[in-house]
Every structure is written in C-alpha cells, then in structure tokens.
Amino acid sequence: MDGVGSNLKVVESSRRIRYCDGLLRVVGLVLTLVAAILTGVDKETKTVPISITKTLPTLHVPVTAKWHYMSAFVYFLISNAIAFSYSAASLVASMAVRTSKDKTGIVLVVLDMTMMGLLLSANGAAIAVGVLGQYGNSHVQWKRVCNLLGGFCHQMTAAIILSLVGSLIFFWLVALAILNLHKKSR
Amino acid sequence: MASTDKPTTVSTPASEAAPPAAAKYSALDVGLRVLLFAASVSAAVVMGTAKQTEMVPVPGFPPTIRVPFTAKFNHSPAFIYFIAALSLTGLYSIITTLASISVSRKTKTILLALALLDVVFVGIVASATGAAGGVAYIGLRGNNHVRWNKICNVYDKFCRHIGSAVALSLFAAVLLVFLSMISTFTLYKKIR
C-alpha cells in the first residue's frame, strides 16, 4: 500500500517536472523570439543639425540607426535566433524523455547550458555597447548617441531585458534538471 | 545481443566498476579546476596590467601639438566587470579544487552545490567575455555610423593585452562548460 502510494507520488512529481520543463521552454522560446524581432525591426532616423563653423549655416543631416550597424547587436540578434530555434527543437525532444535515466535528458541539460552561455555572452556584449551608447566614453572620445536616438535605445533596452530573462529561463531549466537528478540519486 | 549483455553488467558487483570510473572523473575534475584557476587569474592579471601612454594629437589643435593620453582598463565599465568576474572565478576555482581534493567521498549535497555553482559561473564568465569582447571589437574596428574611432592603431600594446585577456577568458568559459558537464554526469551516474 505504502509502496504503491510512493510510486504514485514519484509518477506525479515527474509529470509535474516535465510539465514545468515544457512550460519554461515555451516561455524561453517566446522571449528570445520577441527579443530577436524587437532588435530586427529597430530603426530610427533623425535629422541632426551640425554646425561646422560659426560662419557657415547649420547643416541638417539625417542620421539613421539600425541594428546591423553595430556588430554587437548583430551577434545579439543571431544568438537570440539560435536560442529560439534551439528551444523549438528541444521542446520536441523533451517530449521524448520518459524517465530521468534517459540519455536524451542529459544531452538536453548540456545543450541548455551551452545555450545559456551563448545568450549571456550576447547579452553582455549588447549591454556593454548599450552602456557606451548611453554614457559614451570620454577617455577615447566616443560620444553618447542615445540623447539623439532615444527611441532606438529604448527598444534595444527592451530587447536586452527580454533576452536576459530568456537566459535566466535557460538557467532555471538546467537547475531544475540538476535538482531532479539530485533527488533521484543515491 | 543487448538483452544478453544487460544481465551481465547488472550482475557484476558495483564496487568493482565504480571506484576506477569515479577516481578517473575526480582526477579530471581536479585537473580542469587547476587549469581554470590558471586561466581565470591570468586573464584578470593581463587585463589589470593593460596600460599604455601615447602622445595623441588633440582635436581642434594643429596636429603638431601632441598630449600624452593614457589608456587603462578602468576607463571602461565593461573591463572593470571583466576583472571582477574573472577574479571571482579564480577564487571559486581555488575553493572548489580544495573541496574536490579534500572530500574524497563526496556527499550528495556537495555534488549538488558543485553542479549548480558550475552552471552559475558558466554564465558569469560568458557574460564577462561577451562584454569585454564587444567593447574590444569597437576599439579594434571602430564604428563610423556613430563616429567612434578605433583606438587600437594608437594603443597597440593595450589592445594586445585586452585581446589576450578575452581569449583566456573564452578558454576559461569552455573549461567551465566541461566542468559542469562532469558535475552533471557524476550526479547522473548516481541515479537509481
């Protein structure tokens, strides 16, 4: 009687973990997709008055900001796209995992971890360049650009935050799998 | 064939097969952690010693007037984060090397803590590498869309330091991925 009860409980908890796993993967999929789309459609054009000398009249020059002008943002978009396609593939693969002894599960943990590293490095690069855009760097005379292109910067910030949450989702996936292994181990 | 194989592996006593495998994993684990310590500390030191003073023409003045300008790692928040993260990783690798050596028969809790912390440090080192690499790339190539001029043609030694530090931390990140793979496999082997 007791054995049957504990067995039922194990089945119940493993079903709950698989449900949680699938849900996290779907959230990660949506977050990385939205982050990639937000980065891809981010474009702003402004006319900026430039006065070269006081005698010449001020020139109005159109300035455009696009994601592919900055290599860090290109890396960010590509990483998010890879993470999106990986989470779609892993969602299918995780359906096939029946027990925690399954080899597919352990491969998924390793791949999840790699994907987390990829997303976090892309976030690090995008944030570092975003901070440069926001504050500039007076030591090497890199002027800040977010006072001119506010809309572009805000949309990029939103994309970075979404992608950061996405990488935390991947971390939770790995942590959940490790905790599950720990619970089942001797 | 497989069905005849399985009972034989089950029937062999676990004490015969398990210790060599565990010892092999443990030796590899300690070796990788020592390597991680070397990589992360040298990355932090190489980044910390990146400093170069050059005579640079001042904008707005004739090019014959040159003023000494210094490039140092603490001029960029990304590089400060890099040093903090890599130093923390060095400290972590010392602690976990000692833990791996001293605790010969590892308990479940230590294995769990190692596995989780390894994953956390994968994230920390990856983000530090990304941040420093992103800024270093702009320094190397510049960006004419926002008129950020490249600086590596002036500060060549400084840029070599930054590049080596980023390469070392990339190596540290790969080591950490392998380490957490080992930690996860150790847990996986203990499954009933």
Automatic annotation (TrEMBL), chain A:
Cellular component, GO annotation: plasma membrane
Membrane-spanning intervals of the chain: 22-41, 72-93, 105-136, 156-181
Keywords: Cell membrane, Membrane, Transmembrane, Transmembrane helix
Topology relative to the membrane: Multi-pass membrane protein
Subunit structure: Homodimer and heterodimers.
Protein family per UniProt: Belongs to the Casparian strip membrane proteins (CASP) family.
Protein name in the entry: CASP-like protein
Source organism: Hibiscus trionum (Flower of an hour)
Automatic annotation (TrEMBL), chain B:
Transmembrane segments: 30-50, 78-99, 111-140, 165-188
Domain Casparian strip membrane protein: 25-175
Cellular-component GO terms for this entry: plasma membrane
Subcellular compartments: Cell membrane
Transmembrane in keyword set: yes
Keywords: Cell membrane, Membrane, Transmembrane, Transmembrane helix
Membrane-topology descriptor: Multi-pass membrane protein
Coiled-coil region: none
Quaternary structure note: Homodimer and heterodimers.
Protein family: Belongs to the Casparian strip membrane proteins (CASP) family.
The protein's name: CASP-like protein
Organism (species): Hibiscus trionum (Flower of an hour)
